[in-house]
Amino acid sequence: MPNHTQTNAGLLARSLSAVWHPCSQMKHYQQFPLVPITRGTGVWLYDHDGKRYLDTVSSWWVNLFGHCNPRINAALRDQLETLEHVMLAGFTHEPVVQLSERLRDLAPAGLGHCFYGSDGASATEIALKMSAHYWRNTGQVDKTQFISLKNGYHGETLGALSVTDVALFRDAYGALIRQQATVPSPDSRKAAAGESAEAYALRCAEALEQHLQQHHAQLAAFIIEPLVQGAAGMAMYHPVYLQRARQLCDTYGVHLIADEIAVGMGRTGTLFACEQACITPDFLCLSKGITGGYLPLSVVMTRDEIYQAFYADETARGFLHSHSYTGNPLACRAALATLDIFAQDDVIAANRHKAAYLNEIAQPLREHRAVRNWRNTGMIWAFEVDSPHRDIAQRCFALALQNELLLRPIGNTIYFMPPYVISEEEMDLLVERTLKIVGQLG
Ligand SMILES: *Cc1c(COP(=O)(O)O)cnc(C)c1O
Question: Ligand 1: distance of its center to the CA of 299 in Å?
């Protein structure tokens, strides 16, 4: 491997000159430098100088079983010696078939068909297009609109951005996006004083019903992040909203798209978040954790009735969407190794114990005077920090690095979304150091 630079500073300068970094105002890196990472192991990332950082955000919510996981590495090495890639139109291979069969067995019943993409946004695009195309194929050509939740996030390509409600990501591209309506988010922080999360979720479902009543003839689908709206700042809500959404979508003939790109693969305490509402969506989107955080891969799972509406003699009735790397064998092998770990280590049960431990030791943090809205769903924790500083997110990020943590707050929301391999000692360190950081921010 070429290794031109031995120091942090050297790599940093070269990166700023040649790499345009995502989700960044490049100029801000003058004040808050990039962190050059050379290697990773378990929950830890290491820089050139040997300093370590606990990856509390799982490298943008993708890593499940630690960096350089030996079992995933071994599976990839094996695959690398067998078949690195073959196109999936006109060809097939064992890893993609096995992955599709295993996902079908694990997902909510009835999602028997897997369509692959390369990343989360492409899964959103696939689900939106497939939904609208289904209605077209079944003669309901007016059903071409979508609805989503207030503050929802479904990716940043133009189609996905049209159902994403994050002003910072959207405003510059308003002229390029077809405007879609949003309905109120059941975010339990917004409940009225004395109102339960469940009651608030039901109240939001009434608003959804009113919208569906009026607009269902033009609506193809309702897209939603089940249980936790990640980019909104880990907004958590009661599962009854999903149950009502499923009933209402059935009543009004509108598809339900469950975007489990962030919350799938065990993140909310069940393998899929929809399980907690006992519902089957019409489309289930998975990405991020599906390869354990190794390789880009996404999948949209759907029902047989939808699949059948495309099955015909005419080419144009088919779903002609494609990506060059659709169903890449290496990515599928990483996903299979990830599913193996879930089964072999009884990860869902183990995570319940880890979550209980973290909740117990976090008592001083949740009681800190600057901490508000402490909340937890599965392996996601979040809280808001009252702080006089306007640049709290950047300050917190910088303070965290000094304390061996990678924390990347969303506004004044600090969240933990650690790899599932985090140990009790590492959780102790995480909570202790975060408490110290919050003390310096509040
Ligand atoms: C990250 C994310 C996406 C987009 O995935 P990319 O791989 O970043 O394109 C879509 N929906 C949700 C809920 C996400 O968290």
Answer: 12
